[in-house]
């Protein structure tokens, strides 16, 4: 039987043999994986662990928090703050950045996360996940400020997510392709189950919340309309549709079998660039998708090139199979 490669061993080899990651980054990723393992355990207990339902609070974006949003946020902070590899953290669930307390050693990385993605699916036992992104603190800056976080996604040094579904799967890139690790509950460790994940350039599957159709912009309407016409339409093939309403699970499907995922700008709140968060959702997912051969734009521009103006910035998202993303983008830009 082929030897199982644990996440720890994989990361050590990335550090030692490939020279891709410094030891502090390796340690950081191991801690994030450990935190995901414990969030996975909480998710698994569900009603038995008292983790379902809403908390009596709202986050900075005015969204009602679920108990698990708060639990996952705390797990990630507590696991990471004392290890010495981080300078600060930022989360979808916190108003501003979280500085590593002075009593702990200070590191050089910045960790950003959506602790629990797909909150509306928690109580109905549908896949949810944790999304994370790692940046380097800019050199020469003394302390840490929010400004230090405002780096384009292209600056990420690691990105990934952990999906809590029928299996718990951690998906990671450090800029050298995408690897997947499945949680072996008996061993208590993540085991490498796929390397060099590749998204096919073409697809017959799209993911979008169709209930928003009447609010979309013309280029999105055109693209979906052409898909819906199927074999008889300009695309000459039938399309399938999926919408899980957990970005993490929708992107996992796309990394597994291809497809295009869209959460476009719409007319309901014209001043908001989109629903999804640039730094906690779009950037890490876009880097993973690009590393797997796919593409990610906001309809006009590569997402990884956007320089954020604020921590909780939102963005329009089109990502997945390259030829479809290029098509949607060309419908917006006219080229
Ligand atoms: O209900 P909608 O508008 O289709 O929203 C689904 C989208 O909202 C999100 O759930 C937002 O994530 P959070 O649960 O972290 O707020 C995305 O994962 C998903 O793509
Ligand atoms: Mg989310
Ligand atoms: Mg969330």
From TrEMBL:
Residues holding Mg(2+) 2: 114, 117, 281
Keyword annotations: Carbohydrate metabolism, Cytoplasm, Hydrolase, Magnesium, Metal-binding
Domain Fructose-1-6-bisphosphatase class I N-terminal: 6-195
Cellular localisation: Cytoplasm
Binding site for substrate: 117-120, 209, 275
SUPFAM superfamilies according to UniProt: Carbohydrate phosphatase
SUBUNIT field: Homotetramer.
PANTHER family, A to Z: FRUCTOSE-1,6-BISPHOSPHATASE-RELATED (PTHR11556), SEDOHEPTULOSE-1,7-BISPHOSPHATASE, CHLOROPLASTIC (PTHR11556:SF35)
Name of the featured protein: Fructose-1,6-bisphosphatase class 1
Organism: Curvibacter microcysteis
């Amino acid at each position: 039987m082929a030897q199982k490669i644990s996440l720890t061993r994989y990361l050590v080899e990335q550090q030692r043999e490939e020279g891709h990651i410094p030891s502090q980054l390796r340690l950081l990723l191991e801690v994030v994986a450990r935190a995901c393992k414990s969030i996975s355990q909480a998710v698994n207990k569900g009603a038995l662990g008292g983790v379902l339902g809403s908390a009596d609070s709202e986050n900075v974006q005015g969204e009602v928090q679920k108990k698990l949003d708060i639990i996952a946020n705390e797990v990630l902070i507590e696991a990471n703050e004392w290890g010495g590899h981080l300078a600060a953290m930022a989360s979808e669930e916190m108003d501003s950045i979280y500085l590593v307390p002075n009593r702990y050693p200070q590191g050089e990385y910045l960790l950003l996360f959506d602790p629990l993605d797909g909150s509306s699916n928690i109580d109905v036992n549908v896949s949810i996940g944790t999304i994370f992104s790692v940046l380097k603190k800019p050199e020469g800056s003394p302390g840490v400020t929010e400004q230090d976080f405002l780096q384009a996604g292209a600056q990420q040094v690691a990105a990934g997510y952990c999906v809590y579904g029928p299996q718990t799967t951690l998906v990671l890139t450090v800029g050298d392709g995408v690897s997947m690790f499945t949680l072996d509950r008996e061993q208590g460790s993540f085991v490498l189950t796929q390397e060099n994940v590749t998204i096919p350039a073409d697809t017959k599957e799209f993911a979008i919340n169709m209930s928003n159709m009447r609010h979309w912009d013309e280029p999105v309407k055109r693209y979906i309309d052409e898909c819906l016409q199927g074999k008889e339409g300009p695309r000459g093939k039938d399309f399938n549709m999926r919408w899980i309403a957990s970005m993490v699970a929708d992107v996992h499907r796309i990394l597994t079998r291809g497809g295009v995922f869209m959460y476009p700008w719409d007319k309901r709140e014209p001043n908001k660039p989109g629903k999804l968060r640039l730094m906690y959702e779009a950037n890490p997912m876009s880097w993973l998708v690009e590393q797997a051969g796919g593409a990610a734009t906001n309809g006009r521009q590569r997402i990884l090139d956007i320089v954020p103006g604020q921590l909780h910035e939102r963005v329009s998202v089109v990502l997945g199979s390259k030829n479809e993303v290029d098509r949607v983008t060309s419908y917006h830009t006219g080229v």
